[in-house]
Amino acid sequence: MQISDRKKKILRAVVEEYIETAEPVGSKTIQYKAGLDCSPATIRNELADLCSKGYLEQPHTSAGRVPTAKGYRLYVNELMHQQKLSIEETETINASLSAKAEELDQLISDAGHMASLVTNYPAVSMTSQTPATIKRFDLIYIDPNTFIIVLLLTNDTVKNKLVHLPFSFEESMMTRLSAVFNASFTGITEDKITQILISSSERAVGDTMGLCSVIAGFVIETLSTVKSGGAVVTGEANLLKLPEFKDPEKAHRLMNYLSDTSNLSILPSLTQEGDVKVLIGPENVAEELKDSSVVLASYNAGDNMKGLIGVVGPTRMDYSSVAAKLSYIAASLSKLLGGGGTPPPGFGKLMIKGDDSDG
Amino acid sequence: MQISDRKKKILRAVVEEYIETAEPVGSKTIQYKAGLDCSPATIRNELADLCSKGYLEQPHTSAGRVPTAKGYRLYVNELMHQQKLSIEETETINASLSAKAEELDQLISDAGHMASLVTNYPAVSMTSQTPATIKRFDLIYIDPNTFIIVLLLTNDTVKNKLVHLPFSFEESMMTRLSAVFNASFTGITEDKITQILISSSERAVGDTMGLCSVIAGFVIETLSTVKSGGAVVTGEANLLKLPEFKDPEKAHRLMNYLSDTSNLSILPSLTQEGDVKVLIGPENVAEELKDSSVVLASYNAGDNMKGLIGVVGPTRMDYSSVAAKLSYIAASLSKLLGGGGTPPPGFGKLMIKGDDSDG
DNA sequence: TTTAGCACTCGAAAAGTCAGAGTGCTAAAG
DNA sequence: CTTTAGCACTCTGACTTTTCGAGTGCTAAA
Q1: Residue B264: how many CA atoms within 13 Å on its side-chain side?
Q2: pLDDT at residue B351 in the model
Q3: Distance from CA of residue B216 to its chain's centroid?
Q4: Does the C-beta of A45 come within 7 A of strand D?
Q5: Residue (of A347, A278, A266) closest to A311 by Cα position
C-alpha cells in the first residue's frame, strides 16, 4: 500500500507536533506546521484517510489526531530526520565518559547516567552475558591467615576477593595453589568446574584444609555473576515529568517493572553492535511496556562482550534525538572499551533497525 | 509541660490511625480505637487541647486531626510500641543477606534492596567516609604491556585495575615498583600523595615511562572514591503508592533529590553505630525533605568503616515497624561485616535516638 | 468534669454549564 | 476528480453550583 507524499508530510507533521505538545493535533496546526498550501479541509480528508489506514487515531470523535504505533513506525523508518548532536552535547558526553575509564562497572553505570541526563528519560545500561572465563589466576599472600584472590577474566575485567581463614597456612602454599589453578581453572566456563576437578586440585597441592573449595567457590560465583551481567537503571524520576505519567498508578507500574533488573535481561538479544533499535509500544513483548517505547543501542565492550544502553519513554518519544544521542554514546563506549578497532563514533550517522512489519 | 495519660493515649491513637489511613482522624474513631470509656465530646475537648499545644493540627476547621512533627516526635520518643519482627520477616532478611556475603559493594546494595522491600519505602544504603589508606600494594605482571594493580585498603576492601600500556616493560620493573609503592604509599591518605612523592618514586625505580604516575593516579582515584563512599538508592517507585505523593510534582521533587547521591553524604554524620535515628519532617535540614521523614540505622562495616542504611517516607511513616526492621538489618550487617565482635542482632530490642527538642 | 444535643463549617464529590477546538459532510468551484 | 468554503454537530476540559456528610465547637444539663 503506497502512501502519497503529501500524506507522509502530514503524518510527519502530526508525529512531530504530537511529540512536542502531547496534545492531539488538528488540521489547522498541520497546515501551518507542514507548510502545505492547501486548506484545512483538504488536510482533514487526508487525515481521515490516514486514520482509516491505521497510522493515526482520534481519542474521540472531534478531537485532533494522534499517531498510532504503526504511525510512529513509519515515521521512524522513513520520515524521521536524522538529527545531529550539537557540539555542546557531544562535548558533555565525551567529557563525562572518557574522564573515568577507571572501572568497567563504573563506566557502565556512568553511561546510563549520561544517557538519562541527555535524553531526559530513564535509561538502562548493562553488559550482556557473553560467557566469560578466567584468563589468569593469582593469589596474593597477606599474612598467615589472609590472602587475596585475583582473577583476570577474558573480558579484561579483574575481580578479587579478600579471604580470611580461621587457620594459618604457609606462603608456599599460595604458589602451589596459583600454579594448579592457573593450570586447571583458566579457560573454562562455570559449568565445567565440578567437584571432581576441585578434589583433584586438592590432591595436587596437598590441601587438607578446604582452601581449594573456598577459592573454587569464589571462581564459580564470579563467573556466574559476570554471566548474569549487571543492569543499572537511572533517572526513573524523569518519567514523572511527562504528562503521560501524571497518573501515579501508571508511573508506578512502569518504574516497578524497570526496577526489577531481571526483567531487562531479554534486551541484549534484540540488538546488534552498531545499530540502534526502536521498539514502539505494542512491539514490546512485556505487558508493562506495551504503551511505552524503548530505544536501544549496543556497543562493543571489550573482547567478546556486548554492552547495551537504552532509554524507556512514552510512545510519544523524540525518537530522532534519542536515537542520535544513544548512538553517539554507544559509539563512544565502543571506542573506549572495544580494543577491536570499531570505527570512530559517527557524528549523527546512524542506522536504525526495527521491526519492519509495516502493515 | 506535662501531658495527662489520657492525652497521650489519644495522641497515640491519632498517630497510629493516621499512619494507617492517611485521613484526618475524628473523635469517634479515637474513642473506638483507643478503647476509652468517655464520649466523643470529651475526646474533642482533649483534642482541642492537644491542638493548642501543637501536637496536632486540623487541615481545616471541622476536619479530623492530623499529627504535627512535634506530635510524631512525642510518639516516637515515648508512646511508640517497640515492634518485634515476625520470624518470617527475620528469616527473609537473614536468608537474603547472609547468602551473599560475596562482595562488600554488592552486600551494601542488597541491604538497601532488602530494606526497601520489607519497609515499602525507598531505601538508601551507603558506607561512610572513614578515610581509608592502603594497607598493601601489589602488581601482577601479565605480559610485557599489561599488569594489574591490586590495592588492599585498611577497610579490607580490595581494589584493582588492569593497565594496558602502549610500550613494554620488564617483569623486574614490577617488583621494584611494588617495593617502592609499598614503602611510600601505604598508610597515607590521598592528600599526602604529592607530585614530589611521585617524582621521588620515579627516581627510585628508574621509571622514565610514567609508570609511577599511572599507578599513583589510580591510587589517588581509589582513595578518593572510597572516601566519597557509594550511596545506592532503591525502591523509589514505592513512593508512588503513597497518597501523599499522588501529585507527581511532589514525587518528582523528592525522587530527584534522592537520585543525586551527593545529597546524601551528610547522612552518615547523623548516626552512631547501634542506634536508630529518626528525623521527622522539618527536623531535616534539606528543604526537599521538610515534609518527609527519614529513619537511619548504622552498622559496623569492618574495621573503622561505618555503614548506613535508611529509608525515606512521608512523615506519616510507620516508625515503629520501620525502626525495628532497619535495626535488625543493621545488626545483621554488623555481625556479618564487623569483625570486631559486635553483639548479635537484638531481636527487636533497639535504641531510638532522635532530636530531643520537645517544645 | 463529663456528656448529649445542635447548629455550623468546610471539603470532596456529583451534577450541571459553557466555550471552543475540531470534526464530517455537503455543495460549489477549479 | 480534487479542492475548498461553509455549517451543523460533537466532545472535552474548565469552571461553577449543588449536595452530602463527617466532624467540629458550643451550650446547657447531668
Answers
A1: 27
A2: 42
A3: 31
A4: yes
A5: A278
